[in-house]
């Protein structure tokens, strides 16, 4: 009998197993709130995904891909399926007014999530600082930390709206001096997310110019998360920071077919940028994911072919989707106002943030708890009203989150019936409030 076989079967490991880079980043708002919403909520306006079907032309493209060339079930080119990188190069070439090489200026990723991950791994070293504008899509912070970097936060500060008006996401602005003060020799990159999740803010030309000027002055990179680029309302324009002077050479644009074609489960994303930067993203990609699923890329390529032909025309999905979502935004705004929440009108995205400070007396105090009010409120609303949302302080750093506990985020990319069910809940709630 060998020595090995004489060891007890239930011998346990005793050494610590967690890599240091995971310290302090184990909490994840989505894991907790998706579970709670599944248990309690009748209507889920929490997590950001459409519950309406993907457009017919995309489904048809997927059907064709499934039943057509059998090679579409095998690996494709590692850095992006050729038909997809070709059409992305054509479209973004047109939008940016520059010739793009599909093979070196575009890379396909597993959703925008992997695109972000590639950027932080490719560019951030131990000790590098990355500027993040608050509130922010929550994964930026742990991803910077995992790469060994230090996130440096700069807030969008709300300005009170004019008498009686509802606040707009445009009322949340950067203070130019404060922003400038965050740039230092250690700064490697800034993350810009316009339109912004969670506020729905669409950064103006002036705001982007301010950021661009600082990027050029301090010679730093810009990671531009533009996953909601097609979802802008009230005639506003999405401006691509990479198109501003001096920015193409230092910017990686990130996009997502999940948001573009209302198919978040497909997890097809992309990056666009100069080869000088893209080559390092390819290094991370080839040493982690390597290939993305072929079928989804083929169908998304067909979807973009269609959109390229219909660009700017009334039948274009990029024209129809925002029009439909703007109407849904306005429906939800009205009922939130009726129940006494103060919505901040988003200029873009499919999220809407609402002020819940007037509801403090409705929600019982949780004794001996240091849970922020927006968390307590959201859980209470799920359990008692059956309506799910997400607490806004989850989109801030720990320090600033403490100052932003009076807001929650709703997603309005939902079927008419889902929104109506949410509105019914709000209506009933309002009646209860007025009769008590
Ligand atoms: N960036 C932002 C701002 C997002 O809101 C999301 C999705 N919620 C992503 C990136 C990730 O996109 P994907 O689902 O394509 O990975």
Taking strands numbered 1, 2, ... along the chain, how are they ordered across the largest sheet?
2-10-9-8-7-3-4
CATH superfamily of the largest domain: Type I PLP-dependent aspartate aminotransferase-like (Major domain)
Question: What are the bound molecules?
Answer: 4'-deoxy-4'-aminopyridoxal-5'-phosphate
Q: What's the β-strand tally?
A: 15
CATH architecture of the largest domain: 3-Layer(aba) Sandwich
The succession of helices and strands, N to C, reads HEHHEHEHEEEHEHEEHEHHHEEHEEHEH
| pLDDT averaged residue by residue | 95
The biggest beta sheet reads:
7 strands, mixed
Total domain modules: 2
CATH topology of the largest domain: Aspartate Aminotransferase, domain 2
Secondary structural class:
alpha/beta
Helix content: 25-40%
Ranges where pLDDT stays below 50 over 5 or more residues in a row are none
Any idea what the radius of gyration is? 23 Å
**Text of the CATH class of the largest domain:** Alpha Beta
How far apart the termini lie comes to 79 Å
Tally of DSSP helical segments: 14
Beta-strand content estimate? 5-15%
Query: Rough shape?
Result: globular
Layout of secondary structure:
Layout: H1 29-40, E1 43-44, H2 56-67, H3 82-96, E2 106-110, H4 111-123, E3 129-134, H5 140-146, E4 150-155, E5 157-158, E6 172-173, H6 176-181, E7 187-193, H7 205-218, E8 221-225, E9 251-256, H8 257-260, E10 268-272, H9 275-286, H10 294-309, H11 317-339, E11 342-344, E12 351-355, H12 373-385, E13 387-388, E14 390-391, H13 398-401, E15 407-411, H14 416-435
Parallel strand pairs: 1-13, 3-4, 3-7, 7-8, 8-9
Antiparallel strand pairs: 2-10, 5-6, 9-10, 11-12, 12-15, 14-15
Helix pairs in contact: 2-10, 3-10, 4-5, 4-9, 11-14
């Amino acid at each position: 009998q060998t020595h090995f076989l004489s060891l007890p079967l239930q011998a346990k490991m005793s050494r610590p197993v967690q890599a240091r880079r995971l310290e302090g980043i184990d909490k994840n708002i989505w894991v907790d709130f998706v579970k709670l919403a599944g248990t309690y909520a009748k209507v889920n306006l929490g997590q950001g995904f459409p519950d309406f079907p993907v457009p017919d032309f995309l489904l048809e493209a997927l059907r064709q891909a499934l039943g057509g060339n059998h090679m579409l079930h095998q690996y494709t080119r590692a850095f992006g399926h050729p038909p997809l990188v070709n059409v992305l190069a054509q479209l973004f070439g047109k939008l940016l007014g520059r010739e793009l090489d599909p093979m070196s200026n575009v890379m396909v990723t597993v959703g925008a999530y992997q695109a972000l991950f590639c950027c932080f791994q490719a560019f951030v070293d131990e000790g590098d600082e990355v500027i993040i504008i608050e509130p922010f899509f929550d994964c930026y912070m742990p991803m910077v930390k995992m790469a060994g970097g230090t996130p440096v936060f700069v807030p969008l500060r709300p300005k009170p709206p004019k008498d009686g008006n509802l606040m707009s996401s445009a009322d949340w602005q950067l203070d130019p001096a404060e922003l400038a003060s965050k740039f230092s020799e250690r700064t490697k990159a800034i993350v810009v997310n316009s339109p912004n999740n969670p506020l729905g803010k669409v950064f103006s030309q002036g705001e982007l110019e301010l950021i661009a000027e600082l990027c050029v002055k301090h010679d730093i990179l810009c990671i531009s998360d533009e996953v909601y680029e097609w979802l802008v309302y009230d005639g506003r324009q999405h401006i691509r920071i990479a198109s501003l002077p001096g920015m193409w050479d230092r910017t990686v644009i990130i996009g997502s077919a999940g948001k573009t074609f209302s198919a978040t489960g497909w997890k097809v994303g992309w990056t666009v940028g100069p080869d000088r930067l893209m080559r390092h993203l390819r290094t991370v990609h080839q040493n982690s994911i390597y290939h993305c699923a072929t079928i989804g890329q083929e169908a998304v390529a067909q979807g973009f072919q269609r959109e390229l032909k219909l660009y700017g025309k009334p039948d274009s999905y990029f024209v129809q989707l925002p029009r439909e979502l703007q109407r849904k935004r306005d429906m939800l705004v009205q009922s939130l106002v009726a129940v006494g929440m103060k919505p901040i009108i988003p200029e873009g995205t499919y999220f809407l943030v609402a002020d819940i400070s007037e509801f403090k007396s409705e929600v019982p105090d949780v004794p001996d708890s240091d849970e922020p009010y927006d968390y307590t409120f959201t859980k209470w609303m799920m359990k008692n009203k059956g309506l799910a949302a997400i607490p806004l302080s989850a989109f801030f750093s720990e320090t600033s989150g403490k100052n932003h506990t009076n807001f929650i985020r709703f997603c309005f990319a939902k079927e008419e019936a889902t929104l109506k069910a949410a509105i019914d809940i709000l209506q009933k709630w309002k009646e209860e409030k007025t009769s008590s």
